[in-house]
Amino acid sequence: MTRRNRLPRxxxxxxxxxxxxxxxxACGGNDSASGGDKIHVLVYGDATNKVEKxxxxxxxxxxxxxxxxxTIPGADYQAKLQTIxxxxxxxxxxxxxxxxxxxxxxxxxxxxxxxxxxxxxxxxKDNFLPSVFNSTVVDGKSYGVxxxxxxxxxxxxxxxxxxxxGLAAPKTWDELLNAVKVLKSKGVTPIALGGGDKWPTLMxxxxxFDRVAGPELVQSAVKGDKDVWxxxxxxxxxxxxxxxxxxxxxxxxxxxxxxxxGGSPTLLATGKAAFELMGSWEYSTLQDSQPDFAKTDLxxxxxxxxxxxxxxxxxxVGNTNNFYSVxxxxxxxxxxxxxxxxxxxDQFVKAQLSIGNLPTTTNTEAQLDTAxxxxxxxxxxxLVKNAPSFQLSWDQAYPQTAGTALxxxxxxxxxxxxxxxxxxxxxxxLPTS
Amino acid sequence: xxxxxxxxSAASKGVQRSGRGPGRSHExxxxxxxxxxxxxxFFFGLFAxxxxxxxxxxxxxxxxxxxxxxxxxxDNWKKLFDDPIMIKSLWLSLLLTFLGVVVQTxxxxxxxxxxxxHQRNRAVLSAIYFVPLLLSATAVSVLWRAVLDPNFGVxxxxxxxxxxxxxxxxQSTAIAVLIFVGTWQFTPLHTLIYQGAARSVxxxxxxxxxxxxxxxxxxxxxxTLPQLRNSVVTSMILMVVGGLxxxxxxxxxxxxGPGTDTxxxxxxxxxxxxxxxxxxxxxxxxVMLVLVATVISLVMVRLTGYDKMNSTMEGM
Lengths: 433, 316
Known about the structure:
Chain A has 433 residues and is α/β, with parallel strands linked by helices. Chain A has helices at 3-29, 49-62, 77-84, 99-107, 115-120, 123-126, 130-133, 159-164, 173-185, 199-213, 216-222, 232-246, 263-269, 282-289, 291-296, 333-341, 346-354, 374-386, 394-397, 403-414, 420-428, and strands spanning 38-45, 66-73, 93-96, 137-138, 141-142, 145-147, 151-158, 189-192, 273-279, 298-301, 316-319, 322-326, 390-392.
């Protein structure tokens, strides 16, 4: 090859490379989610999305600026959100759990305080139950509007299996232990547990600590008092839990079962297990995947009381609510405010109730009877209304940096990897700020 | 200016001289110009070298992904070496890699040599066999997670083999599943390498061996296997690098559990970065993985004489 015909080719190849590099970098520039005539709303992807799609369609009918619903399914929602929230792909509005889950974003100055919205339309605040609304107040400013509903954790059961074995939903800890014994002797796994996901396991700790040691223990632990983990109350709670695990309540292979892939709900629905402790979304999950079971044999009760414990038998744990927060850099704050108003509309409340979710708006109570399963939402409503304490899930209450260590400790305690002292040590090692 | 120029020309002369080994004269045939490698080099630099350097920088900083990174000196590195989970994760990575090589190598050599035959059924079977290679690791993991479900998957119907089916609840069985799934997915790739290599072994060698009365086994051990030497090294380096960077299967199949029993370094890096938002420590783990993989690859290349690129055709 001679020098003369080599040069143009080099130029061509080099030019091509340069063009490609330039066009690649250009891609990032015009992909800004908050630009254009669209509002991006990011939500946790699950069965509830069908209601959100309806609302978005309603909004888009009359609005010039269209809402686009984006979903991230699965347990990695928070991780993915944090990865994009300070980038050009950030949404305008996003789903969150309030409190601790948005604190880092508030600290980084990314979120829009909603006080101006509320000044213009006081309904954005007054139409929600105050205790719920206030859980997104950070440093005196409101950063979220409640959406979806409140999510207490309940003891779900397969009423057919209980009936066949002459059992009823347990009201006390002893009744639960007895049910475990009876069911185990009949070859039924007493309690379905999605241990592979780890967070379903955590719910057992939350209730045991509430009932035995009282709701204050974890509150002070989250505030930084690590000594409370080593108190008698804490040890009692752990020993009670150990007793239940050792009785074979969860079977032996719970670490290989997941909730997120439908494993544990299917155990309950098919009668291979009799109970599952799960957030109130269990109903919409099963309504989606096992509609016949959800209609006929799915039953529920409050978590059993425990004699001699400090917590009230009417205390509940779970996610107090989900919220929409708004990014400061949104280009359409007025339209966002309009969209948020839908969260207290009658249409929203009806749609949520139809899938078993319980919105925390002031107009919810009047509409409870329109639900697909009025008994279920009435039960939840009374439970939440009458609860002296509603303990926020630990993984929401603790900062995100504690998440991995927390779920590892929880899993290890259940499968015998660590004992009571090991668990206490692990909890004392969690970061609290 | 002049000194630099002389130095450069001296250096380039030196390169030329060392390039001219005995019996490897390149006189006459001019070498392809560097310009031909420029596009590749450009993209390699942009997508491999630049990010790598950024990660090295980040390993000396503390960053939560939201605010600006702050210089943290050796903090991240100190934290790492005091962290029992980090040490454990490195061992687990090495163990998983070692087991992967040990299981996959013999299997893929046998399959590759078998598939190198010319009968029609082999071509069809080989084609079917390569299917796992076409699936993403995510799809493969989700698939096996469902197949291995203790209550509704295969273990529920084969209790004599799986017991209670708690495959993801014990360290040894969880590792076994990871090795199995990795093998299922990647053996086809290595089989492909061996199939190609086995087909290029000259027929005359086998014809000569047959005349000498060597049977199938002797032919395999004395002709095929030695002729596959370079392919073995290639395939093993791929396995080592792939093994050390395994991530997706762990993420979907075990999530590092039970406890931290399958938390390999790459997964631990992900946890540090995207679960606890400690990008500094995550970067330090990343740099460490790069170093370990580089050292292992170099050692393998040296020990096997792969760097000399000797032809297996020598002596023909």
